[in-house]
């Protein structure tokens, strides 16, 4: 026993003497040893060719002249491919799921004599909501995620983080937040998972909370449609497309600006701290492995995110059917709520229908627009346009949609406000659930959910007041 | 407006609910507050007495009252409590710690320095806030929690100011070194300690860019100011500030490093050999840089700059690594030929 104590004391003394640099010295000697071995056994092949190609490419991609324009062009190309490429499979899927299967299910249920409410909840509610989510979400995700992974695989994404780092450093955030933000343009839930690449907990939380300011797949279609109806109409017809595209890009840039601003104010207040060290490896460029990329991005990301969305959309479908079919003193619950919320909605440039749609559509952003159309028709009392109360639908053309919206007394302000509100509102429940899973904290999940909503209310309120003052 | 009212009521009732859920905790905290205050006073007094002994000063009733900013009546009460607890003994006009009191004081100091080390290594909290946060935390952590924390951060030996951390058994080595003011013209020294109290002086030292392990050379001194060189930059400090910097003399001039360039000084295409990483770069950040191969002897080449000019991509042992200016400022290099 005595001996053991002596040894421990001696060890302690020696630790004091060696001081703090033990780890440094250890690593230094390991590297020295490794260099010795490698210099003995490795012959360096002077294949300068590929190396100089890499550094030339790097010089262009990170130059102050071309760096950002190339980045914007590439991202725009990815979005354009996603939006354009998703149109056809989306309409195929919706004509299959909604135009073919849906009537068959209806006939089947009436043949076996299901009571109308079981048929309503299951087929008009659950099934249609699921069909919408799959038809709208699956094709863009199946295009966007592989494209994004290809860029990552090629080695371009680390260069984006490298270029944008100075902005995020000023906001007190991590350079890799640029990557997770870009990921959010596809799907916020997947992006929240991808913040795992940020190892400092403070900066990771900032990245999670501000990710919602990246417009996701569920929100792109509505942004584009509303911009076409309201903003495009302001311009002469041959410039209409350009105008509405510019409006959507404007909203996207506003989102990036907001993400930076909110990051900055978070790191000045509740998540106080300095930007932590940033060391990012810029791997050599290499030809992407296409098949492997397709497989992993389809299985790991697309199917995973889609499954979560479906799980949340199905009960929401049942909800929508119930609130518009359960009546109370002659009015459905939906109408009661809309009348009650309308003054508040008008205060922030929206209306009661939109507020209700956003509440019902918490599970999945892509059902916001179908829900708005359905509710507008319900309130305006012109059921001949829609497919019956509590049944979501989408119209074939922008013109037809504009007609329905004019029934709801929509103005240019409503259009602009809903575009802004779509950027600044709570994340969908899939994302909220993912945030809870990733942070493990109710408090931060609450902040991430409520903060963008509050910003949206304030922003829209002031916009509406100033608009009416001058309008 | 009816709607406004109902929304408001809903909002307020949600907040009330949240408070209700936390109510039990709040009530308990309220009850504990009085006890906590007493504990803080006792522990602060013991710490003060220990520091007096460590620095070989005598300590009287008035100096205790002064350092804890309480009246001398309150100080007398505190002394009585401490005596009853067997923590201190009276020796004429002054007080000395008993073995029990010394053990307690060292435990509080250990917790304080462990927490400072934790803040420095694992969080991004600003350097000037470490001390004040540890002042609060040292009274709240049990010794068991302190041991867990110590194990978690790798049983450190020194706090970020260069003070030794007492062991759990209460062993602490004597401090080496002399105040910076005792160096003579032309002497070289290595900073081993920066006193963190009073904080106004400490903030000035930090603002000058001084850190533990830095080498300084005294150029000139008189009664009004000291002129010295640290990392090739001229610094001026009043003697009252400089006495809070402890240095170890470096007698053998051949051991003294010459002034070095920083990694951030490299222009694109230039190469340098790493000499070392500044001690101001700590914890995980330091380990990451070392793991990337930024150890003495590695050849580093600046390859690309990002759109904003910062960070810069360096070729380190065959890999292209982007490092922000703040970190590359902390890495010292020399020319390949040297």
Plain-language structure description:
The complex is a heterodimer of chains A (471) and B (338). The longest helix of chain A is centred in the N-terminal third of the chain and has 45 residues, at 67-111. In chain A, β2 (327-328) and β3 (331-332) form a beta hairpin. With 471 residues, chain A is mainly alpha-helical. Chain A is built from 19 helices and 3 strands. Chain A has helices at residues 2-18, 22-41, 48-61, 67-111, 116-154, 156-170, 177-184, 188-194, 201-210, 220-231, 240-268, 290-325, 333-347, 352-360, 368-380, 398-407, 412-423, 429-439, 442-470, and strands at residues 279-281, 327-328, 331-332. Chain A has a two-stranded antiparallel ribbon. Chain B has 338 residues and is α+β, with helices and mostly antiparallel strands. Chain B is built from 10 helices and 14 strands. In chain B, the strands form 3 sheets. In chain B, strands 3-8-4-5-6-7 form a 6-stranded antiparallel β-sheet. Chain B is globular, with a radius of gyration of 25 Å. Chain B starts with a helix and ends with a strand. Chains A and B meet through α1, α2, α3, α6 and β1 of A and α1, α9, β11 and β13 of B. β1 of chain A pairs antiparallel with β13 (319-323) of chain B.
Radius of gyration of chain B: 25 Å
What is the largest interface, and how many residues per chain? A-B, 49 and 49 residues
Number of helices of chain B: 10
Identify the strand order in the major beta sheet of chain B: 3-8-4-5-6-7
User: Approximately what portion of the residues of chain A adopt beta-strand conformation?
Assistant: under 5%
- Number of domains as seen in the coordinates of chain B: 3
The general outline of chain A is elongated
Rg measurement of chain A, Å: 27 Å
Q: Indicate the mean pLDDT of chain A.
A: 82
From the spread of the alpha carbons, the general shape of chain B counts as globular
The total beta strand count of chain A reads 3
Could you state the order of secondary-structure elements of chain A as H and E? HHHHHHHHHHHEHEEHHHHHHH
Q: How helix-rich are the residues of chain B, as a percent range? A: 40-55%
Residue stretches of chain A low in confidence (pLDDT < 50, at least 5 long) are none
Oligomer: heterodimer
- Low-confidence segments of chain B, given as residue ranges, are none
The ordered H/E elements of chain B are: HHHEEHHHEEHEEEHEEEHEEEHE
Summarize the biggest pleated sheet of chain A.
2 strands, antiparallel
Global mean pLDDT of chain B: 80
What's the main sheet of chain B like?
6 strands, antiparallel
């Amino acid at each position: 026993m005595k001996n053991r104590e002596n040894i421990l004391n001696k060890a302690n003394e020696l630790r004091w003497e060696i001081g703090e640099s033990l780890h440094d010295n250890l690593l230094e000697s390991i590297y020295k040893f490794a260099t010795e071995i490698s210099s003995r056994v490795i012959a360096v092949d002077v294949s300068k060719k590929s190396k100089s190609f890499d550094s030339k490419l790097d010089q262009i991609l990170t130059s102050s002249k071309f760096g950002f324009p190339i980045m914007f062009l590439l991202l725009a190309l990815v979005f354009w491919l996603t939006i354009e490429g998703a149109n056809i499979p989306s309409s195929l899927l919706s004509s299959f799921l909604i135009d073919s299967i849906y009537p068959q299910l209806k006939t089947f249920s009436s043949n076996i004599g299901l009571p109308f409410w079981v048929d309503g909840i299951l087929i008009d509610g659950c099934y249609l909501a699921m069909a919408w989510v799959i038809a709208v979400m699956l094709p863009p995700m199946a295009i966007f995620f592989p494209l994004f992974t290809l860029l990552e695989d090629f080695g371009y994404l680390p260069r984006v983080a490298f270029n944008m780092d100075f902005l995020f450093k000023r906001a007190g955030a991590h350079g890799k937040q640029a990557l997770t933000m870009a990921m959010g343009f596809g799907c916020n839930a997947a992006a929240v998972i991808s913040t795992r690449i940020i190892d400092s907990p403070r900066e990771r939380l900032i990245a999670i909370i501000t990710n919602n300011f990246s417009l996701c797949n569920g929100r792109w279609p509505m942004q584009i449609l509303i911009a076409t109806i309201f903003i495009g109409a302001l311009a002469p017809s041959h410039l209409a497309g350009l105008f509405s595209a510019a409006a959507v890009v404007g909203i996207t840039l506003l989102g990036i600006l907001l993400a930076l601003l909110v990051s900055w104010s978070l790191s000045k207040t509740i998540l106080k701290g300095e930007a932590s060290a940033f060391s990012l490896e810029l791997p050599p460029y290499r030809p992407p492995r296409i098949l492997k990329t397709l497989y992993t991005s389809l299985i790991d990301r697309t199917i995973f995110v889609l499954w979560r969305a479906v799980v949340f959309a199905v009960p929401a479908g049942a909800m929508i059917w119930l609130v518009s079919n359960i009546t109370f003193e002659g009015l459905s619950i939906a109408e009661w709520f809309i009348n009650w919320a309308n003054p508040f909605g008008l205060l922030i440039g929206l209306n009661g229908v939109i507020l209700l749609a956003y509440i019902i559509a918490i599970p999945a952003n892509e059902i916001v627009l179908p829900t708005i159309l359905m509710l507008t028709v319900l309130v305006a009392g012109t059921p001949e346009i829609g497919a019956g109360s509590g049944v979501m639908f989408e119209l074939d053309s922008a013109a037809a949609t504009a007609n329905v919206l004019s029934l709801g007394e929509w103005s240019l302000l409503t259009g602009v406000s809903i575009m802004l509100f779509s950027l600044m509102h709570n994340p969908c429940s899939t994302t909220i659930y993912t945030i809870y899973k990733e942070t493990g904290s109710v408090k931060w999940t609450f902040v991430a959910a409520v903060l963008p909503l509050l910003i949206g209310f304030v922003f829209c309120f002031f916009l509406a007041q100033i608009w009416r003052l001058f309008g | 407006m009816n709607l406004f009212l109902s929304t408001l009521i809903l909002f307020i009732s949600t907040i009330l609910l949240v408070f209700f859920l936390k109510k039990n905790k709040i009530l308990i905290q309220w009850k504990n507050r009085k006890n906590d205050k007493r504990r803080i006073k006792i522990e602060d007094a013991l710490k003060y007495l220990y520091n007096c002994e460590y620095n070989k000063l005598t300590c009287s009733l008035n100096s205790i009252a002064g350092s804890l900013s309480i009246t001398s009546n309150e100080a007398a009460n505190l002394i009585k409590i401490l005596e009853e607890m067997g923590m201190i003994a009276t020796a004429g006009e002054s007080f000395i710690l008993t073995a029990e009191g010394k053990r307690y004081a060292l435990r509080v100091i250990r917790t304080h320095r462990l927490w400072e080390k934790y803040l420095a290594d694992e969080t991004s909290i600003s350097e000037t806030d470490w001390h004040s946060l540890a002042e609060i935390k040292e009274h709240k952590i049990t010794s068991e929690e302190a041991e867990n924390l110590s194990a978690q951060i790798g049983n450190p030996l020194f706090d970020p100011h260069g003070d030794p951390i007492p062991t759990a058994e209460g062993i602490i080595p004597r401090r080496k070194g002399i105040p910076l003011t005792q160096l003579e013209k032309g002497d070289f020294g290595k900073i081993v300690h920066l006193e963190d109290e009073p904080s106004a002086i400490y903030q000035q030292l930090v603002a000058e860019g001084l850190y533990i392990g830095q080498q300084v050379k005294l150029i000139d001194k008189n009664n009004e100011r000291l002129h010295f060189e640290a990392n090739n930059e001229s610094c001026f400090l009043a003697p009252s500030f400089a006495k809070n910097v402890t240095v170890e003399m470096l007698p053998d001039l051949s051991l003294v490093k010459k002034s070095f360039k920083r990694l951030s000084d490299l222009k694109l295409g230039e190469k340098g050999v790493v000499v070392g990483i500044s001690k101001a770069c700590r914890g995980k950040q330091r380990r990451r840089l070392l793991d990337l191969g930024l150890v003495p002897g590695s050849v580093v080449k600046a390859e690309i700059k990002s759109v904003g000019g910062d960070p810069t991509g360096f070729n380190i042992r065959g890999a292209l690594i982007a490092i922000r200016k703040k970190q590359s400022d902390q890495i010292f290099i020399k020319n390949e030929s040297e």
